[in-house]
Amino acid sequence: MWIVVAVVAVLMIAALIAVVSTLRNRRLQREAEQLREQTRLESAKLERREALAEETAAKARAAQAEAEVKAAEAARLQERAAAHQNDVAASREQLEEQRKRADSLDPNVSDRDKGHGAESDESATNAETVGHDPRLDADTYGRVKN
Fold first, then answer.
1. What pLDDT does 113 receive?
2. Most CB within 10 Å of its CB: which of 31, 50, 78, 99?
3. Distance CA 16, CA 123 (A)
4. Looking at residue 108, what DSSP letter applies?
């Protein structure tokens, strides 16, 4: 009889161990599944952040390229403006020489007028302040301006 009680007790302990082991395995499986689900969610978030980072980098590259194009355009326009200014200065000098030659050929222009007193100097200064030479006709001014 003690043997039967001992065998029944061993069988009950074995059954209890089996139940506990099964419950433990199910709990571990649930934890593993929850961890996998959390990993999938975090992976999706990471992919969205990675896509955003790539998009932002592409926008930065495009902005940089646009800035380089604008810088090149600005440099080209500065060179063009300098060329125009040089043309204007050369035309102004040429016109001044032409005016002086005309004054030197004209017998009605006195020596005082040839020097172009203060009045001529003032009008030239005012013309430079305004940005054009009033002695330039429309054709010359238009050609120099372009």
1. 59
2. 99
3. 116
4. T
